[in-house]
Specification:
alpha+beta, Jelly Rolls, 4-stranded antiparallel beta sheet, DNA binding (chains A, B), DNA-binding, transcription regulation (chains A, B), Transcriptional regulator (chains A, B), 5-stranded antiparallel beta sheet, 2 domains, Arc Repressor Mutant, subunit A, homodimer, DNA-binding (chains A, B)
DNA sequence: CGGGTCCTTGACAGATTTCAAGACGTGTGG
DNA sequence: CCACACGTCTTGAAATCTGTCAAGGACCCG
């Protein structure tokens, strides 16, 4: 009744997470600490592998957690694609990110004992459950793990800073271009093609994420296509000139905002 | 040669951090752990007060740290006002925040061993130096402190998520209105008037922070003034209708973006 | 009092959103 | 198997907002 694997239409270069293609869904049910660390690409020496973390599967559209739900878990994506969204006071969805393999989410719940966002699966997903208390305990014994935790948190913080910068200072074209290159890089990291891939999210979701309307996203994509920078057909994207996309910058805001620095030094 | 206190023109309601008005700058030089926690408004039971943290003073324009500088310290504002800025690849300044009393900064350095932003004093400031290693050590012994650290980190994360939402989905008027109310609330928290206060930053800095130009900020402020919502004269702002400002919402983006949720439930 | 920075205001251009209509794709039910 | 319904994507035209450029005034400091 359901597809064997929602990632099957992704243009895979190598498959590190083979899913059984034989009838029933036969996926990995537990991961050790070192496996999780490897997935997240954090270096950890001699991890205590007596601890094992449970996996849980979700299908497209299902919610991993909702806003206001008591916080007790962190999550790491083992496979699949998701989106994290906030709901503003008007009830509008605001997409905050698109977690994929190796990404951790749920971090926003650490403060205040409850999640402030919700996470929805965009495809069939396999996520690893990591009880926060357990992680804290492990951290006490292993400085490596503790450091990794702080690092993960810090990375997220920096990623958000970059988003703020982008949305605040770049035009629509540059934002979409960066979004594409960001996806490209992430796909490359997890073993997919960086040149050709499927968008798992709608134009509306991309627009929400970038602070644009779906029409603007669509138009920009069409423009890139016309310029030969990419090829787009529905959800399938092929990158032709990554360098141009990376460089692309049209600046609606400050142009003469030269460094006002160098006034007083400490 | 320098002003006795740059906060002296703030419309104070209560003064919890008295500065000596007698000639030479006679400020607090050390704070205990519990004092720092109190400043940050984090509840901590029986803190180890044998540890003391050094204070350092800065004058307007001085940099607390710069981008790329090796990370080893976190900072808590004891008094004064600052701004944290990132520099994008074009060399433009991008204001990320305006730390004030009780705020912690330097968190962005935890990941990657180096700061990714710089922090500049907007007025005479007194900041507390908190060696990260020391904090980690204390955290191991005191779950309270450790929890507080995670909480501080998480709070910052959520704050940035809010910023992304605002910049991405609100028009200029709403952004400025929220900015004013945010300042108002923070001033109230640290014992200043929430109705009348001085902007410590320039329109340019506000604009950079909100993803707008200084002209738009100026115009919007003037418009609010004309509507009677506030009074502005240069740096002095008086809030007249906080409720209107909080509610104000002009939506350039999605209007018909009704909840597309409620499709599949977990 | 002069220089410099910051703020305000106006006119204009340009980008993005809004509104609207139609094509494309997929899934469901007959 | 096909038709229909729905959600998604594309494209066009007009309206609006915000940025850009420019000039003048206010304020601070030396």
């Amino acid at each position: 009744m359901f597809t064997t694997s929602t990632t099957s239409d992704q243009f895979a270069v190598s498959r590190s997470a083979p899913l059984a293609s034989t009838g029933a869904r036969q996926t990995k049910l537990w991961s050790s600490l070192s496996e999780v660390c490897q997935l997240m690409q954090v270096p950890v020496s001699h991890a205590d592998d007596t601890v094992r973390f449970q996996h849980v599967q979700f299908r497209a559209g299902q919610r991993i957690y909702t806003i206001g739900q008591p916080f007790d878990m962190l999550y790491v994506v083992y496979s699949g694609f998701l989106k994290t969204v906030a709901i503003d006071e008007s009830g509008n969805e605001l997409v905050l990110g698109f977690p994929m393999k190796g990404d951790m989410f749920g971090i926003d719940g650490i403060h205040g004992k409850a999640y402030t966002s919700e996470v929805v699966a965009l495809s069939t997903c396999d996520v690893i459950l990591i009880p926060f208390k357990t992680l804290l305990t492990i951290g006490k014994a292993s400085p490596d793990v503790e450091q990794a935790m702080w690092g993960a948190m810090g990375r997220e913080l920096i990623r958000e800073q970059r988003m703020i910068s982008s949305i605040g200072s770049l035009g629509a074209e540059a934002r979409v271009a960066r979004f594409l290159m960001s996806l490209s890089d992430r796909f490359a990291e997890i073993g997919f093609s960086s040149k050709q891939f499927n968008l798992r999210m709608t134009r509306q979701e991309i627009g929400s994420y970038l602070g644009l309307t779906l029409e603007t996203v669509s138009r920009t994509l069409s423009a890139f296509n016309a310029l030969g920078l990419i090829s787009v057909e529905q959800k399938t994207v092929t990158i032709h000139e990554p360098d141009s996309l990376k460089t692309l910058r049209r600046l609606p805001p400050s142009k003469h905002a030269a460094r006002s620095a160098a006034k007083l030094a400490a």
